[in-house]
Amino acid sequence: MSLSAKDKAAVKTFWAKVSGQADAIGSDALSRMLVVYPQTKTYFAHWTDLSPGSAPVNKHGQTVMGGVADAVAKIDDISSGLLDLSELHAFTLRVDPANFKILSHNILVVLAIMFPQDFTPEVHVALDKFLAAVSLALSEKYR
Amino acid sequence: MVEWTEQERSIITNIFANLDYEDVGSKALSRCLIVYPWTQRYFASFGNLYNADAIKTNPNIAAHGTKVLHGLDRAVKNMDNIKATYAELSVLHSEKLHVDPDNFKLLADCLTIVIAAKMGSAFSPDVQATFQKFLAVVVSALGRQYH
């Protein structure tokens, strides 16, 4: 299920439309993940405040979307492009890769809420594939 | 036994009370067939599914999406016993329709996305959590009678 030329074009076009709101997207997606999938809170026990829209959640949402933006720019070779991030997740953060799917789902929900007209089924499938490719790249170095 | 708070019950009944079944049902099913194309295997007799536009305008898919969404009404009315309520439907999906139960989750995810797009910011994190909990119980009940 690799990214076709059509998928890449759809992702780049859609990203160009929405990247201006990347911070809001990241914050909302992360907030939802922590509420809807409480097991994900185990990775953030060191934060003072895990509630939706809190300062640590906003800041981390920004970081995550920065990674997504990077992946869009490197869409022609995501796995090489994200090697450093993969090492970070594998050796330092050690996030169980099942959680990448969870965060991806919440990103898609936020995009549907914020861009109901633009988030068509065709855009949805391209983004779902893209986020799956990003998740795979992030788990490259795990074992 | 699944426990529901008063708040969760009212969130679910409100969503379904204000639902445009034809719009949401057809959008959810067609989105599922487009985003997860292998699900088309169950709809070989439904006519033209060759591309996204064909799927989106296919009247058989639209009608079926509405039917599936109305199927959730029984769960809404019997939230304390969804497993028993869907025992027969589970047998049907297993023995007659031969649907891989993994597909139930795919349709549930598409339904979540369609409802989120419709409700906008009213689909808060808490509402999302309740709606996904409800769908997870339905999905589990539908897979219960497979063996």
UniProtKB/TrEMBL annotation, chain A:
Residue intervals of the Globin domain: 2-143
Metal-binding among keywords: yes
Molecular functions (GO terms): haptoglobin binding; heme binding; iron ion binding; organic acid binding; oxygen binding; oxygen carrier activity; peroxidase activity
UniProt keyword annotation of Transport present: yes
GO annotation, cellular component aspect: blood microparticle; haptoglobin-hemoglobin complex; hemoglobin complex
Keywords: Heme, Iron, Metal-binding, Oxygen transport, Transport
Source taxon at top rank: Eukaryota
InterPro entries: Globin, Globin-like_sf, Globin/Proto, Hemoglobin_a-typ, Hemoglobin_oxygen_transport, Hemoglobin_pi
Gene Ontology biological-process annotations: hydrogen peroxide catabolic process
Listed PROSITE patterns: GLOBIN
Family per record: Belongs to the globin family.
Protein role: Involved in oxygen transport from gills to the various peripheral tissues.
Protein name listed in UniProt: Hemoglobin embryonic subunit alpha-like
Automatic annotation (TrEMBL), chain B:
Any Pfam family hit: Globin
Organism the protein comes from: Oryzias melastigma (Marine medaka)
Gene3D superfamilies per UniProt: Globins (1.10.490.10)
InterPro entries, per the entry: Globin, Globin-like_sf, Globin/Proto, Hemoglobin_b, Hemoglobin_oxygen_transport
CDD domains with a match to the protein in the record: Hb-beta-like
Superkingdom assignment: Eukaryota
One function term, GO molecular function aspect: oxygen binding
PANTHER family on file: HEMOGLOBIN FAMILY MEMBER, HEMOGLOBIN SUBUNIT EPSILON
Annotated Globin domain residues: 3-147
GO biological process, one term: hydrogen peroxide catabolic process
GO CC annotation: blood microparticle; haptoglobin-hemoglobin complex; hemoglobin complex
Entry protein name: Hemoglobin beta embryonic-3
Family that this chain belongs to: Belongs to the globin family.
Sorted UniProt keywords: Heme, Iron, Metal-binding, Oxygen transport, Transport
